[in-house]
Design a protein that fits this description.
Helix content is 35%, strand content 23%. It is α+β, with helices and mostly antiparallel strands. Strands 2-3-4-5-1-6 form a 6-stranded antiparallel beta sheet, with helices on one face. A hairpin with a 4-residue loop joins strand 12 and strand 13. The longest helix has 25 residues. This is Copia protein.
């Protein structure tokens, strides 16, 4: 698959054919239940017609037919299908309709609150409708928009002297914003930061959360754009701040992965231990990124997008890269030896390669801290977040 322009189709299973419930339950294990019988029947039928279940992603099924590929994803009673041969896709849909009562929804345009626009050369995903619903729910439809989701100089903590607020309201607001990050990686850092205060939210935290809505109001039609690629080369960026969370002095890791057009995997997470240096914080972040690489490469292999070369992960700290390449342990690294040996092993085995990049070129910076307007807008554009 040197070049791809695959259309995604959507169907909904209404009525399954008959199978023994016991076999379904045994196959689904903890996912089994009355509401999952349709899912179980569909799953077993896919296996019976030659699909292989991905070992890395529970909802993914793949079928190789000569030089062609069919890809199916299941979510309860919703079925998504794509492939590199339109005729095979149509044959599959007809085959499924003979076994199930199904509704053919055509090209996928809306799925789980996500809007999808497909054309020959690009795919654009966003949550414009959902964002409007959030603004309405929290009475922010007429709010004044801002250019960034968070004030760069703002520092949030548990004890800030501000009055406490209703936790239920705050949790609902942050929960809605969390789902919005499915297509809005540009707000992930601040939403993740605010989620640390679910049990001690104050007026200051609420003000910051509402600022996110003001930012969303001004970028209501933004999402992630994926353009047609000549090749699918996996690469990523890994970054961390240092001791940025004032309550416990822990650092925040962030990573970004792309196949050449737009970000498709991203993360922000507070580190579990206190890093004793910038290099250590960056090293811990890189280790998390490597774990994600291993999982992504398994899924890509299922899709025949084998990554034969080392996956490059760009890091803006030469000391962290030197630690990963140095076979000798010394006093400054003894306390994180497990991560140290793991990352070194992944480099030596040819899975990954840590590559130095300048700080101004570090795309994952947007996932680790609040940025000034100019840099925020630049990184937002470079990771593929834009309007349709």
């Amino acid at each position: 698959m040197e070049e791809a322009s695959l259309k995604i189709y959507q169907s909904q299973v209404l009525l399954p054919f008959s199978l023994e419930n016991g076999s379904i339950h045994a196959f689904l294990g903890p996912f089994a239940g009355q509401n999952n019988k349709r899912f179980g029947n569909t799953l077993l039928h896919l296996l019976s017609i030659g699909f292989a279940k991905s070992l890395s992603e529970f909802t993914l099924y793949v079928k190789h037919k000569e030089h062609n590929l069919l890809i199916v994803s299941l979510y309860v009673d919703d079925l998504l299908v794509t492939g590199d041969d339109t005729k095979l896709v149509e044959e599959f849909k007809q085959e499924m309709m003979q076994a199930f009562e199904m509704t053919d929804l055509g090209h996928m345009t809306y799925f789980l609150g996500i809007e999808i626009k497909q054309s020959v050369n690009e795919v654009f995903i966003c949550q414009r409708k959902y964002a409007k619903e959030i603004l309405k729910k929290f009475q922010m439809e007429e709010c004044k928009s801002v250019n960034t989701p968070m004030n760069q100089k703002e520092k949030l903590s548990k004890e800030n002297g501000a009055d406490k607020i209703d936790e239920g309201y705050y949790r609902s607001l942050i929960g809605c914003q969390m789902y919005l990050t499915a297509t809005r990686p540009d707000i992930l850092f601040v939403v993740s930061l605010l989620s640390r205060f679910m049990h001690c939210a104050s007026e200051m935290h609420l003000k910051t959360a509402k600022r996110i809505l003001r930012y969303v109001k001004g970028t209501i039609d933004y999402g992630v754009k994926f353009e047609k690629c000549q090749e699918f080369k996996l690469y990523g960026f890994s970054d961390s701040d240092w001791a940025g969370f004032v309550d416990d002095m822990k650092s925040t890791s962030g990573y970004y992965f792309s196949l050449g057009s737009g970000v498709f995997s991203w993360c922000t997470k507070k580190q579990e231990i206190v890093a004793q240096s910038t290099a250590e914080a960056k090293f811990i972040a890189a280790t998390a990124a490597v774990n994600q690489v291993l999982w992504l490469k398994k899924i890509l292999s299922d899709l025949l997008l084998h990554q034969k070369n080392k996956t490059e992960i760009f890091v803006d700290n030469q000391a962290a890269i030197a630690i990963a390449n140095n076979p000798v342990c010394h006093g400054k690294t003894k306390h994180f030896n497990i991560k140290l040996y793991f990352l070194r092993e992944m480099q030596q085995s040819g899975e990954v390669n840590l590559v130095y990049c300048k700080t101004e070129d570090q795309l994952a910076d947007i996932f680790t801290k609040s940025l000034p307007i100019s840099k925020f807008e630049l990184l937002r554009k470079r990771i593929g977040v834009c309007s349709s």
